[in-house]
Design a protein that fits this description.
single chain; 316 residues; mainly alpha; DNA polymerase, domain 1; hpI Integrase, Chain A; 2 domains; globular
């Protein structure tokens, strides 16, 4: 049963909000689903409290919704995300004239605990990539073209993720034409369809060359299109398959933490800062909308400094 069946104006507002997120803000399908789910839950709560139009949403109602979620034991990060969705919804309603005021403008939410992202040490990252290169060499001598092609692809995936710090969705979305070999750049389409150019290191470009020359033609098929990276059946590489490539590769290195593709992104950013890159440059490379998001990596490097000090200094 539709919880908004008795409040068609709220249902209409929800549908309009989803269109706004998808078509005007250009959010990813995942983000749209998350915001839409949170907004639907809020409006269902409002409907149960007697609200019938967006104008009925007020700060007290929003707070009661968050209090109920908190009583159910939701994590602070989840509460913060839901409060953000509520603020986005009420702001949109106010802009559209569906409400006289933005009820969520004063809505506070618990600040999420910011956990430091897991990263590889530089020598661990090197070991992961070296092992991938060795697997590609072994596969090439095994006289199994498909296995050799997949090994070349896996090496390219790992090198690209670490060299560029791109998100796994950005990686899987790359096309052949996005690589500028002459300038060693790759064109990346990030969140909100924003484009950026990211440099490629020599090892990453070498892995990419090997994949394009000797791996991709083996897997290429009718479903390949212009996709740069392919799955074993010839279609565009799936994000789940890319994640498995990373997990499998990192697990092969003794002592390395089990990381997903985002862990390689964190590692790349951390190692750039440790190597002397400035925060603004790292922000541009990662495609962060604000510098605040990038600043978490300064916490990572500071944590490493303390850890190294504690191990190495005789009077730590």
């Amino acid at each position: 049963m539709d919880p908004l069946a008795d409040a068609p104006a709220l249902r209409e507002a929800l549908d309009g909000f989803v269109v706004h997120l998808r078509d005007e803000r250009g959010l990813s399908a995942h983000s749209v689903r998350a915001y839409a789910g949170d907004a639907a839950d809020l409006l269902a709560h409002a409907s149960r409290r007697g609200a019938r139009t967006p104008a009925d949403l007020d700060l007290r109602l929003l707070r009661s919704w968050l209090a109920g979620l908190q009583a159910r034991g939701l994590a602070r990060t989840t509460l913060a995300r839901r409060a953000s969705a509520a603020r986005a919804l009420t702001a949109w309603c106010a802009r559209r004239g569906l409400a006289d005021a933005d009820a969520g403008a004063l809505l506070a939410s618990p600040k999420p605990h910011r956990t430091l992202p897991g990263v590889l040490r530089q020598e661990q990252a090197g070991a992961v990539l070296d092992a991938a290169g060795e697997r590609a060499q072994r596969a090439a001598g095994a006289h199994d073209p498909a296995a050799a092609a997949l090994a070349l692809r896996d090496r390219a995936v790992l090198e690209l993720l670490y060299a560029t710090g791109v998100r796994v969705g950005e990686l899987c979305g790359l096309d052949l034409g996005d690589v500028d070999d002459a300038r060693r750049l790759v064109r990346v389409v990030g969140k909100g369809d924003k484009e950026r150019a990211v440099p490629l290191g020599v090892p990453a470009l070498a892995a990419l060359d090997a994949w394009r020359a000797r791996g991709r033609p083996v897997l290429e098929g009718p479903r390949s299109g212009a996709a740069l990276l392919l799955g074993r059946r010839g279609g565009r590489l799936d994000q789940r398959a890319a994640r498995e490539v990373v997990h499998r590769a990192v697990r092969s290195v003794p002592g390395a933490p089990d990381l997903a593709p985002h862990g390689l992104r964190h590692s790349a950013a951390t190692h750039l800062l440790e190597g002397g890159a400035d925060l603004r440059t790292v922000q541009e490379l990662l495609g962060h909308a604000t510098l605040t998001t990038t600043q978490v990596y300064t916490h990572v490097t500071a944590e490493r400094l303390r850890s190294t000090y504690a191990r190495a200094h005789p009077r730590a």
